[in-house]
Design goal:
Layout (H helix, E strand, L loop, with lengths): L3 E9 L2 E8 L8 E10 L1 H8 L15 E9 L1 H7 L6 E4 L9 H4 L38 E4 L5 E3 L6 H4 L2 H14 L7 E5 L3 H12 L4 E6 L4 H9 L4 E4 L5 H8 L5 E6 L6 H9 E9 L13 H6 L3 E4 L5 H13 L8 E6 L3 H10 L7 E5 L3
Parallel strand pairs: 8-9, 8-11, 9-10, 11-12, 12-13, 14-15
Antiparallel strand pairs: 1-2, 3-4, 3-6, 3-15, 4-5, 5-7
Helix pairs in contact: 1-12, 5-6, 5-11, 8-9
The structure holds zinc ion (ZN) (2 copies).
The site of one zinc ion has 8 residues, from α3.
């Protein structure tokens, strides 16, 4: 093993620099991961822009959908995690404290100590500055420090790395659709926004046995809607050309969708559409970032009349990740269609811009492979 790690550091807004860091000494409670693949997420782009998020964070290594192999591991960490050197693992972005009321009720993703959008100091992969030792807090680097509070999941060696990196959007989809939305056999769902998380919701809905899965997206990205259909969506709608709510009602015998998930980044009108397209007693799940913008057309009266549940979600529980990894391993869904682009470490800026600026409209899940 080398003694230093090369990483792509987001030094300031929209600028990446390759830097070398010395590898940390590993004690009894922590470890070190050699990163195999790191997925790029819309949150990486938001932080990279340093506008609505990440302004005060300083230089940092982005990347929080991390797959790799454990190359150093302390004795107590090995026992606690049930892991060994050489194990291939998925690492969640959260570093929950383990002792607060959220952690103790199984909702570690809400722990203040790992909340990058809270008021206080936090530790979290992909958004902790390199000025906090040992600097290696992101997946867009050759090595990732495994903090004692890490949440790791063991992976079999035969799982394709690029697909394994889908564990974040798939596990989020499983929690949001099946747990929060209570999606199950016979139900209907509208997913707005066929990016990686939207497609994760499609897979989760199909795996849960939902009957009518509808996806809406923009006509300039036909590949995303095509992949939605390949993953099992029964109907896709071009949101900029068609009346989404009317088409959802047509497809559901006039009732509307039992669950609507809104994932459209930055667009607020999709929240209005969600309320319009939802069935009576339906659940509207808000999972997309609107970059700080308020929703002006929100219909209080439709929400009251239909007794809707409007629910914000972020993150996932440990069990949903295990289920996502099982789903990936089952090869039941053609997930390879979601893995559209892979870049080397020196092209990290390009990978981030692909996710944020969509210079290739066909992009869905983008990966960085840091090994030289
Ligand atoms: Zn993310
Ligand atoms: Zn906590």
């Amino acid at each position: 093993m080398s003694t230093s790690a090369r990483a792509a550091v987001a030094v300031e807004a929209l600028r990446t620099e390759l830097q070398d860091f010395s590898l940390p000494e590993i004690g009894a409670d922590d470890g070190l991961l050699q990163v195999e693949v790191a997925g790029v997420c819309g949150t990486d782009w938001e932080i990279y822009r340093r506008e609505s998020r990440g302004r005060g964070l300083g230089p940092l290594i982005l990347g929080h959908e991390n797959i790799g192999r454990i190359v150093a591991l302390g004795e107590r960490a090995a026992e606690r995690w049930g892991a060994s050197v050489g194990d291939r693992v998925a690492v969640e972005e959260f570093l929950p404290c383990g002792h607060c009321r959220f952690c103790l009720s199984g909702r570690g993703w809400l722990c203040d100590k790992t909340d990058s959008r809270g008021a206080g100091p936090f530790l979290r992969y992909g958004s902790t500055p390199t000025t906090i030792p040992p600097a290696l807090w992101g997946g867009f680097g050759e090595y990732l420090y495994l903090h004692p509070n890490s949440l790791i999941h063991r992976l079999s060696d035969d799982l394709p790395g690029e697909q394994a990196a889908l564990f974040v959007p798939l596990s989020n989809g499983i929690r949001w659709v099946a747990e929060v939305g209570k999606g199950g056999p016979g139900g209907s769902i509208l997913v707005q926004g066929p990016g990686q998380h939207g497609l994760g919701c499609v897979v989760a809905a199909k795996a849960a046995g939902m009957e009518t899965v509808i996806v809406s997206g923009l006509s300039h990205s036909p590949y995303r809607l095509e992949v939605a259909r390949a993953l099992g969506a029964d109907l896709t709608i071009e949101a900029d050309r068609e009346d989404v709510a009317a088409r959802v009602r047509d497809a559901t015998g006039g009732r509307g969708a039992d669950i609507v998930v809104d994932l459209a980044p930055g667009a607020t009108e999709t929240v209005e559409i969600a309320v319009d397209a939802a069935a009576k007693t339906g659940v509207v799940i808000l999972a997309g970032s609107k970059h700080g913008r308020a929703v002006e057309g929100f219909s209080n009266d439709a929400t009251v009349r239909k007794e809707l549940t409007v629910r914000g979600v972020r993150g996932r529980d440990y069990a949903s990740v295990e289920r996502a990894l099982d789903l990936i391993a089952s090869r039941r869904f053609p997930l390879e269609l979601m893995c559209t682009h892979t870049f080397g470490l020196s092209e990290t800026d390009k990978a981030l811009r692909l996710v944020g600026e969509r210079w290739d409209r066909a992009a869905i899940h983008v990966n960085v492979v840091p090994a030289p």
